[in-house]
């Protein structure tokens, strides 16, 4: 790495073997261990595989101090991430602001409200920079020279940006009707873009076959177990930035179902390592009314969810058949949390409220999460006097069409003081 961008080693680095604290890839249901390799599922039950770590070996070595001494990026948590060499991507990703949202809290009548603001993530302004930083580093370690993804937009944007910075080829597969802002934002990095005539679930199905045929690192398919681990950093940061505490209530969007279970896993890992106290933190899933398979299953008290055909302005979370939906339901229930869904009008209203009270412009996914948090607070599911964190995962500048028709045309006047005064003074 060029010295200008390399980061200081954390004090725990000396204690790491080449593989760090990573133990294996383990079938989540089967318990079968596999070596660290590109892999999507367990061969015996076709269930997901997950990275396991040696937490006992971390104790006393991965500490608040060792983390605080790390870089101001998501790599400050590298001991809890599945890479073996130095980070190869995302040296400026993560460590986004945790905003104490007092003006919004006052509006909602609650006491301690935080916004975890990944609309400010780098370089592509969404939470996806976390998962892609880990996946692209892992693609390097496995010797791939081309990365790809199935995406609702933000993932493709992030993959394109990180691949460009790392000097890798990128091929991104997206639904044909992506927002114009997302399309332009990703194309500037020069990836090969393939628009698929179908929705995200069609794109994802095709990408599983593509991963079998081409020797590409499809970040959310054959690198999925490593990719998803990157999402833990959203949760680690919330805990560290709250002063090594967990919020009592965390409201997270649910699309494919990566981020919510990984925030919960992050909390549990910090508890296991003694870095935060176990306060019984509860998780809540937020979905758009037009694509809410998980919230519907919660409301019906069903063990499994039924896939849906999405119809919502919150396109980045419009996934009708979430890959990890089963685990979202499991974790929400285990934590004692819940869920809510928001209509398109409620989503836009929440986007405007967040902008007007906290100066944060999020996309419809963030509007969904805030709108659902408001419902959960107003219906008493989340008590107003307890600590609440709302996870804002994307930036509004990429989806300006969501605000079409929201504002009157701004006045245009001659460049004359008398016209200005006439306008202002009425
Ligand atoms: C991808 C995405 C999510 C959440 O997706 P999961 O698949 O559930 O992790 C949330 N918000 C935005 C803006 C996204 O791009």
Question: What does this protein look like?
Answer:
The chain folds into two domains: 4-80, no CATH class; 96-399, 3-Layer(aba) Sandwich (Rossmann fold), CATH 3.40.50.1100. Helix content is 36%, strand content 15%. It is built from 15 helices and 13 strands. The strands form three sheets. A six-stranded mixed β-sheet has the order 4-5-13-10-11-12, with helices on both faces. A hairpin with a 5-residue loop joins strand 1 (22-27) and strand 2. Helix 5 packs parallel to helix 6. The radius of gyration is 21 Å and the shape is globular. The N and C termini lie far apart (62 Å). Mean pLDDT is 94; it is low at 1-15. The structure holds pyridoxal-5'-phosphate (PLP).
Descriptive keywords:
426 residues, four-stranded parallel β-sheet, Rossmann fold, alpha/beta, disordered N terminus, binds pyridoxal-5'-phosphate, 15% strand, six-stranded mixed β-sheet, 2 domains
Topology:
Blueprint: E1 22-27, E2 33-34, E3 49-53, H1 55-58, H2 64-68, E4 98-100, H3 102-108, E5 112-117, H4 128-142, E6 146-150, H5 154-166, E7 169-175, H6 180-187, E8 192-196, H7 200-213, E9 217-218, H8 224-229, H9 232-241, E10 249-253, H10 259-272, E11 282-288, H11 293-299, H12 325-335, E12 338-342, H13 344-358, H14 364-378, E13 387-392, H15 417-425
Parallel strand pairs: 5-13, 6-7, 6-9, 7-8, 10-11, 10-13, 11-12
Antiparallel strand pairs: 1-2, 1-3, 4-5
Bound molecules: pyridoxal-5'-phosphate.
């Amino acid at each position: 790495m060029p010295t200008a961008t390399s980061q200081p080693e954390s004090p725990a680095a000396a204690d790491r073997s080449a593989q760090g604290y990573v133990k294996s890839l383990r079938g989540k249901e089967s318990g079968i261990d596999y070596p660290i390799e590109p892999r999507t599922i367990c061969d015996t039950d076709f269930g997901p595989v997950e990275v396991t770590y040696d937490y006992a070996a971390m104790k006393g070595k991965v500490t608040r101090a060792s983390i605080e001494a790390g870089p101001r990026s998501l790599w400050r948590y590298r001991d809890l991430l599945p890479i073996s060499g130095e980070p190869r991507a995302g040296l400026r990703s993560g460590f986004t602001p945790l905003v104490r949202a007092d003006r919004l809290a006052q509006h909602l009548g609650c006491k301690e409200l935080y916004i975890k603001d990944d609309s400010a993530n780098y370089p592509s302004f969404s939470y996806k920079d976390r998962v892609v930083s880990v996946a692209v580093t892992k693609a390097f370690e496995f010797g791939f020279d081309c990365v790809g993804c199935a995406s609702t937009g933000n993932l493709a944007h992030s993959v394109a940006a990180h691949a460009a910075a790392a000097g890798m080829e990128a091929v991104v597969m997206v639904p044909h009707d992506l927002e114009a802002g997302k399309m332009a934002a990703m194309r500037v990095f020069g990836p090969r873009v393939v628009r698929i005539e179908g929705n995200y679930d069609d794109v994802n199905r095709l990408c599983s076959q593509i991963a079998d045929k081409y020797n590409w690192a499809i970040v959310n398919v054959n690198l999925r177990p490593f990719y998803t681990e990157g999402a833990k950093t959203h949760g680690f940061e919330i805990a560290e930035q709250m002063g090594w505490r967990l919020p009592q209530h965390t409201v997270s969007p649910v699309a494919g179902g990566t981020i919510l279970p990984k925030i919960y896993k992050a909390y549990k890992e910090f508890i296991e390592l003694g870095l935060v106290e176990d306060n019984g933190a509860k998780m809540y899933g937020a979905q758009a009314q037009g694509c809410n398979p998980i919230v519907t299953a919660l409301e019906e008290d069903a063990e499994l969810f039924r896939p849906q055909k999405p119809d919502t302005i919150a396109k980045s979370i419009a996934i009708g058949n979430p890959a990890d939906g089963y685990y979202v339901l499991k974790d929400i229930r285990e934590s004692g949390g819940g869920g809510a869904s928001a209509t398109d009008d409620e989503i836009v209203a929440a986007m405007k409220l967040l902008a007007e009270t906290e100066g944060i412009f999020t996309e419809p996914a963030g509007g969904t999460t805030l709108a659902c948090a408001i419902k959960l607070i107003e219906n008493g599911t989340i008590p107003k006097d307890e600590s609440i964190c709302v996870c804002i995962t994307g930036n509004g500048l990429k989806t300006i069409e969501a605000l079409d028709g929201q504002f009157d045309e701004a006045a245009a006047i001659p460049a004359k003081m008398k016209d200005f005064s006439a306008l202002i003074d009425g």
